[in-house]
Amino acid sequence: MSGTDTRNWRGVAAEDQEELSEQVSFLLRSRSRRLLGELLRPYRREIVLLVAVIVVCNAASLAIPFLIKVGIDEGIPPMASGRGPATLVSVVAAVLAAAAVQAATRQVFLRMAGRVGQDILLELRRRVFAHFQRLSLSFHDDYTSGRVVSRLTSDIEAISEMLQSGFDGLVTAVLTLTGTAVLLLVLDVKLGLVALLPLPVLLLFTRWFRRQSSITYRRTRETVALVIVHFVESMTGVRAVQAFRREPRNQEIFSRLNADYRDANVHAMRLIAIFMPGVKLIGNVTIAAVLLYGGWLALGGDVTVGVLAAFLLYLRQFYEPMQEISQFYNTFQSAGAALEKLSGVLEERPAVAEPHKPVTLEPPRGQIRFEAVEFSYLDGTPVLPEMDLTIPAGQSVALVGTTGAGKTTLAKLVARFYDPVAGRVLLDGVDLRDLGEESLRAAVVLVTQENFLFTGSVADNIRLGRPDATMAEVVEAARAVGAHDFVTALPEGYETQVGKHGGRLSAGQRQLVAFARAFLADPAVLILDEATSSLDVPGERLVQRAMRTVLADRTALIIAHRLSTVEIANRVLVMDAGRIVEDGPPDRLIEGAGRFAGLHRAWLDSISDMPNVPD
Amino acid sequence: MKSYLRPYATRLVLIWLPALAGVGIGIVIPLVGREIIDGPVARGDAGALLPLSLLALALGVIEALLVLLRRWMLSEAVLGLETRIRDDLYEHLQRLPMSFHGAWQSGQLLSRATTDLSAIRRFLGFGALFLVLISVQIVTVTGLLLNMYWPLGLLVAVSALPVVVISLRFERRYIDVSRQVQDQQGDLATVVEESAIGIRTIKAFGRGRHVFGVFDEGARKVHRTSMEKVRLSAGFFTFLEVVPNVTLAVVLLLGALAVGSGLLTLGTLVAFTTLMLQLVWPISALGFILVMGQEAMTAADRVMEVLDTEPEIVGGSGVVERPRGHLRFEGVEFRFPDAAEPVLRDVWLEVRPGETVAVVGATGSGKTTLTSLVPRLHDVTAGRITIDGHDVRELSLPTLRSMVATAFEEPTLFSMSVRENLTLGRHDATEEEMRAAIEVAQAGFVHDLPWGLETRIGEQGMSLSGGQRQRLALARAVLTRPRILVLDDTLSALDVETEALVEEALRHVLRDATGIVVAHRASTVLLADRVALLLDGTITHVGPHHELMASVPEYRALLSADLDEEALR
Ligand SMILES: Nc1ncnc2c1ncn2[C@@H]1O[C@H](COP(=O)(O)OP(=O)(O)OP(=O)(O)O)[C@@H](O)[C@H]1O
Ligand SMILES: Nc1ncnc2c1ncn2[C@@H]1O[C@H](COP(=O)(O)OP(=O)(O)OP(=O)(O)O)[C@@H](O)[C@H]1O
Ligand SMILES: [Mg+2]
Ligand SMILES: [Mg+2]
């Protein structure tokens, strides 16, 4: 398999774009900085306090060696000369006190910094998750769950690493750095200037590193997301993977992605591998220069030997914290790339937006109107060219038509998964775009073609329809759709765990649970998108009988290929290529000579005992 | 885990050499400084100044180079290791059977493949080396102290005792908590994944708030446990800083007494305390590194948990030269791992080459389970399944699975190009073969997609209509040209007209292959030559549709459309 072969497997989609221009990258940085600011703002006071605490802590810890020196210099001679241990004892007491202060402040700092960090992480997690939930389906259609997961796991971790990576070390380092710089200049201006001369070089070097690493870390974020996407999808579809012997090819793709991720990481680590010793080199060269120049000055008597000795000591102290700072800078860059990605998500506006002044329906009646609605998923390929339709409240409408005609699309528009490109969809005369989310969801429930069960018990899953339902109501809903029998036969009845994606249940059983869920929700408008396609005939019949009682007083849109469902409808819509081609009560359509009559005949043939087998 | 480390062990040790050398040079450079002050400057010897300065420069450059070398080598080694374990983990997961994947949340698997592996990488890339350097430093300094004045040295060594005891205790508790955090993060990843895959259902019921509640609970759990971790480590870190400081105070006190009684010179005491100060930082850094190490260890445990799971379903060595596809179920029983009752028992069924059998049964009767036994997605718990006389367990998995292709009841598509989805089972299919398979499944719509076969379809094929997904999955199964074709209720989402067209085309395919068709509708049953009725977990009747219709009331109840409704209950 060639290299290109393992690159093209994903196929083409509209949203693909890579390589950011300088300008965009600047925008990204300022956007993520804004997010960081927003996250930190509530903790302004804590952060100031933290800095104060760490300063005290450092002072205490620096005091100890000093006190020891004092103890030896001033405490021991009096003792030796028999004047008693008073000074020594007080010095020892001071050491212990300093140790106590250091311990106390350290403890306070670690806990407080830890709490602030964890609080920020929690807030970030909540924010991003809530935002993902708010974003519309058109976003999720392209984004894939793997990328959602990677944002909420690996990106968050990169930030968590920064929050944990010795913020105290950074403060200490900066303090030591400025303190030492001042000291150097005070000791000797000329020599001090020489010692500080490389600072501009250091700044340039740091800028180079920042530029390079922001590109590289962005790459690590992107490559790890692809690794996660592929991983999640192969695990979700592992049944097909194994049945179709897809393993070798998957392995090939995964190794490729994994190697890309490694390469991005290697690149990042190499940048640090250059940056860190680079900083060290600058420090060491400076030390050598100071030695030479200082030695020369000392020879000429311009500086004292003592000053020179002090310089050498302090220079080491000056360049040592640089390592710490660059280490922190590095995790900061990595977290910065993650923040960029997260702020990108948070910046996305839901295509289906919540109205500013939401209208509420009290109570909803369930009249649906399409006024000159046009819809397309991709520009230029209209799925619904122009749709005008009124469904009076309380009517049961069957929607039939060839596959891909746009039935599900119509249903999704009623449930406002998408907004029409032109025209409007109205519920009880209110444009769906003006209706509050709560109000809409309480009024309209859609049972999708691909029902999804969540980890949890059968009861939990049914209860998703109405979280505050009692157990009795849950059981009643299950009974109504004919799910009760199989549920009670499960080892733990309603409390049986349905397993990953409902894998513990059969396809038909999953459909029944999804159905019971909708039943429990009890909306004014119920949309069933092939909700009985996987049921056996008796099961389907049972569901239909239940529907007949339920649907008596509510609007229903029933999409089905099995025309048996049509029996319970008062009206049939036949759809073809995004248009409604026939509309009327079922009896009349069956008697006519249109498409529905043909469909109905074909269907009767297909279920009768003596079919005309085509040969 | 050891087996992973072994090839890298020499390399990791090699990396310690420049590291140690670098530390050595770091100590030597100040000595050169002292040399300059004591030598040329003190003696006024300008000539020696330059060479010594150049020496300092050279040493400085070498130190930087050694750091570069160390980091460069380390990044290769450590990332290589991480990547290899991840590859192996993925490979292993692909081999583990459906029963494993049913029981394990994908978030847990994912967090092992990402979070845990990077914890291991961080420790090996940074922590391990530091641990060695620090340990060396602590031992040397303590040794020097003992050598300098053994009673005080002993005191310092004894002060290490509480450090060791507390470290061990801390370790035990910390491992618990860190494992808990890792597990909770895995659970959280699961919630995230489900909320993303199930977003349509969530939106349809307007349950965003409810799902957010579930996530929030998980996130708060992680927060709580992480805070527990913070508290634990804050206590431990503080303790590690207190011990050397208190020891220092004691040393000062006792040292003063010793000096007072003439056992010790003042100079030695100065040297002793100065040297002792060098212990403060390494001991406090120890805490941080131990924490890292523990996290890496629990992470490794979690990873090994998966890697050590033996795949229960491994292929035999048998190959069938010219498979005909003669399929037999012989007294097959199947029981899910934790179930009390078998789903299938004593199933006998024979499908001859070229023949097609429909399996009919009520919802949840075990049809899908039955079909999944043939390609060994599950293994029978008693009895056996043979193909051309070979027990399927004797055949190698590639042989077996290339003979059997299944179109699942759920299409199971991937967010990649249509072509890649289509050729899932046969990567080398020609354009011609693809066209034919598309034709059979009436999946011509793929040509109308914006980029044709190269169009990426959404996750789980979500950018296609229900019927389109099903037809693509059907085309995928047909394309592999299997000896045994299993269709698990694969026409349920098609309209009557399209269904008729697909059936017509399938008849041709099924003529040369052995077919198993799971069906709920009479129209699909008619694809088959014979029908097997699955009742109460076993096959009770086999025969042509009409016969069963006439003679078996249970069968009639399942398939007849115009049975009196009230008669059902
Ligand atoms: N998310 C999407 N992005 C792009 N195109 C889409 C998307 N969803 C559906 N389509 C396309 O829109 C058309 C109508 O799809 P829709 O799901 O409404 O069909 P349907 O009538 O429900 O068919 P079926 O009976 O097979 O479920 C199809 O051609 C489909 O490929
Ligand atoms: N992992 C599992 N553990 C325990 N029981 C299971 C598991 N998976 C399925 N079952 C049970 O096994 C039985 C058979 O399931 P199966 O999926 O084979 O049914 P089916 O005949 O295909 O039904 P459908 O027509 O609804 O697809 C069901 O009652 C189901 O609850
Ligand atoms: Mg549809
Ligand atoms: Mg099934």
Automatic annotation (TrEMBL), chain B:
Name all ABC transporter domain ranges: 327-561
**Do you know which PROSITE patterns this protein is assigned to?**
ABC_TM1F, ABC_TRANSPORTER_1, ABC_TRANSPORTER_2
Identify the stretch annotated as signal peptide in this record.
none
Q: What is this protein called?
A: ABC transporter ATP-binding protein
Of which family is this protein a member?
Answer: Belongs to the ABC transporter superfamily. Siderophore-Fe(3+) uptake transporter (SIUT) (TC 3.A.1.21) family.
* Domain ABC transmembrane type-1 stretches: 19-295
Give the way it sits in the membrane.
Multi-pass membrane protein
- Does the record bear Lipid biosynthesis in its keywords? no
Q: Where are the transmembrane segments?
A: 12-33, 48-69, 123-146, 152-170, 234-257, 269-292
Q: Which GO terms describe its cellular component?
A: plasma membrane
- Supply the Pfam families for this chain: ABC_membrane, ABC_tran
Sorted keywords for this record are: ATP-binding, Cell inner membrane, Cell membrane, Membrane, Nucleotide-binding, Transmembrane, Transmembrane helix, Transport
Q: Does the keyword RNA-binding apply?
A: no
Localization in the cell? Cell inner membrane
* GO molecular function terms attached to this record: ABC-type oligopeptide transporter activity; ATP binding; ATP hydrolysis activity
Q: Matching SUPFAM superfamilies, A to Z?
A: ABC transporter transmembrane region, P-loop containing nucleoside triphosphate hydrolases
Chief location bin: membrane
The species this protein was found in:
Streptosporangium carneum
